[in-house]
Backbone:
């Protein structure tokens, strides 16, 4: 045993084991995604017990991918279809690449999707969010690890190389921008970051180059949801803050003292400071109108329903929704806002 080797092991000068061809390909593959058609196949109305041979088991057919989304050299962090019709699919990765894909036959969305163009403006993309604005279709935003926010539009009628156009860029966040969400009409975009800042932008207004709300709070630093009049920001320790949003064209607002008691003057004002759960809130969602319910899922395994029409009073607290497991995602069914998934 060598004096420099305190373990009873053989040390040799042999070359380290090399990866096989398949293993090396996997190591270098980077981020890969898949595009599926989730439409279910036609199936019998009657259950299996009514089959001629009910004991016979038929293997369920797997779903074949329409396309494989490759080309990223690192993990894919975000995917989103543009609105209103999903004309383009955007992917953003840890490699900083933004890839714009579309169906090879535009009239057939089930045809293979191919790369239209790509752009790399940042080192890492954290999120992508499509705008629901009917006046600005196929517009989306992204947030980056350097804190920057970029708003693009996709022109599906332009040559592929020119299909991506930058609408606005914002550099207010000083740490990674962790999430962004559009208002229900797509007129304003709210973004948050790790350092605790919340900014609200109106990319299509006369004040498009500056934040119309600027707010910093130690626990308002995670993801959030927006409606037409306020944003809900989730944070550590079960904290949720409801922040008033301005109307497009309103004067910029900064901090708690920027607003008044109601109407458009509530911009930037913390309307409610909620703390119904004992651990970090991992997911927020609003039910579709006319419902006024907001649901929050927490690391403590609980789900809380708040009523926005009653100053966000707790409507119901499901304390052991997932027993000892964290609730990482909640969503209302679009066809029936009374059903929560």
Residues:
């Amino acid at each position: 045993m060598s004096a420099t080797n305190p373990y009873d092991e053989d040390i040799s000068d042999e070359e380290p084991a090399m990866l096989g061809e398949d293993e090396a390909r996997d190591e270098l593959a980077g981020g890969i995604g898949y595009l599926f058609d989730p439409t279910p196949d036609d199936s019998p109305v009657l259950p299996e017990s009514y089959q001629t041979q009910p004991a016979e088991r038929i293997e369920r057919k797997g779903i074949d991918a329409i396309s494989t989304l490759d080309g990223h050299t690192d993990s894919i962090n975000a995917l989103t279809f543009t609105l209103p019709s999903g004309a383009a699919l955007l992917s953003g990765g840890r490699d900083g690449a933004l890839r714009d894909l579309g169906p090879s036959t535009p009239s057939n969305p089930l045809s293979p999707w191919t790369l239209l163009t790509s752009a790399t403006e940042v080192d890492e993309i954290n999120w992508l969010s499509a705008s629901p604005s009917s006046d600005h279709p196929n517009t989306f935003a992204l947030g980056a690890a350097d804190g920057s926010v970029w708003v693009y539009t996709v022109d599906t009628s332009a040559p592929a190389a020119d299909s991506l156009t930058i609408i606005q860029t914002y550099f207010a966040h000083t740490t990674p921008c962790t999430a962004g969400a559009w208002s229900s009409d797509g007129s304003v975009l709210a973004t948050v970051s790790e350092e605790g800042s919340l900014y609200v932008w109106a990319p299509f207004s006369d004040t498009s180059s500056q934040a119309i709300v600027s707010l910093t709070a130690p626990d308002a630093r995670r993801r959030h949801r927006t409606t037409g009049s306020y944003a809900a920001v989730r944070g550590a320790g079960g904290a949720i803050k409801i922040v008033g949003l301005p109307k497009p064209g309103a004067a910029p607002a900064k901090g708690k003292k920027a607003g008044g008691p109601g109407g458009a003057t509530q911009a930037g004002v913390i309307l409610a400071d909620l703390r119904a759960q004992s651990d970090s809130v991992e997911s927020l969602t609003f039910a579709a109108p006319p419902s006024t319910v907001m649901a929050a899922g927490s690391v403590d395994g609980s789900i809380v329903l708040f009523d926005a029409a009653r100053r966000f009073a707790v409507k119901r607290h499901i304390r052991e929704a997932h027993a000892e497991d964290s609730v990482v995602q909640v969503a209302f069914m679009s066809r029936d806002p009374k059903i929560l998934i």
Q: What stands out?
A: The two ends are 61 Å apart (CA to CA). The chain has a mean pLDDT of 81. The helical segments are 21-28.
